[in-house]
Amino acid sequence: MKPPQRTNPLRRPVKGNDNAMIPPTGIHSIPDREYFAIDLPSSSQTKTLIHGTNAHLAYERENPREETDAFAIGAWVHARLLAPATVEDAFIVTGKIDRRTTDGRAEYASITKRASLTGARIITSEQVAEAERMVTAVRENTDAARLLNTLTMREITVIGDIGGKPAKAKLDGVIALAGASIIVDIKTTQSADPREFAKSAATFGYYHQAAW
Question: Would you state the torsion angle of the CA atoms of residues 159, 27, 141, 177, taken in this order, to the nearest 10 degrees?
């Protein structure tokens, strides 16, 4: 597996649509904001089709969900473990904001505007504390630490074809071995119990993501 292109990749048109531009087929180092802007199907989008229809997928694309607390915590854990140098620019850490008050609404509006301009995620100091406990637990786990320390590529974007159609994927990390590669994926979860996590894997379609 070749290392990712770390410069801004040259663009090429999507077949049949000269107005839609995507990176060329291959492995790239692309910030999250640019990755999400690439108009190609991904695992997170297409898993809607496992139990839904094209109409459900279209609705989700037109009505993106607001990021949850769990998503913010997971994003912090990913960044701290895989790309700690990006944390300062990738997040805006705040205290508790009471949006029921005039001052609280004004403060939240200001932070939200800053986040939209910079592409940073909003996370509370309380969430950071919880995420940091997760980061410590991962680093203190011998098997997890060995995987992280052996990574040859981190936070990479892959552009390829599935069924003859262009598609994209975001990989947390890859360990390149002689003649093979291991994909490493970090998941945050409410329970690390193997049985409970198995339920989460089924609920959130991790099997689809793995195949993708």
Answer: 120
* pLDDT tens-place string over residues 69-98: 788 899 999 999 999 998 988 898 988 887
> What is the C-alpha separation between 82 and 133, in angstroms, rounded?
16
- pLDDT one-digit tens code per residue, 132-158: 999 999 999 999 999 999 999 999 999
Distance, in Å, from the CA atom of 33 to the CA atom of 178, rounded to the nearest integer, reads 33
Closest to 148 in 3D by CA, of 179, 189, 184, 187: 184
- For residues 83 and 155, is the Cβ–Cβ distance under 8 A? yes
CB proximity list for 87: less than 8 A, separation 6 or greater: 76, 79, 80
Residue whose C-alpha is closest to residue 70's, from 121, 139, 143: 121
- Per-residue burial over 178-191, b = 16 or more CB atoms within 10 Å of its CB, e = otherwise: eeeeeebebebeee
pLDDT tens digits for range 185-202:
999 988 889 999 999 999
Partnered with residue 92 across adjacent β-strands are 122
Distance CA 82, CA 153 (A): 10
Give the count of beta carbons closer than 10 Å to the beta carbon of residue 84: 10
Quick: pLDDT tens for 33-65. Answer: 888 889 899 998 888 888 889 999 888 888 877
Are 177 and 186 contacting, i.e. CB atoms less than 8 angstroms apart?
no
- Which amino acid is present at 87? V
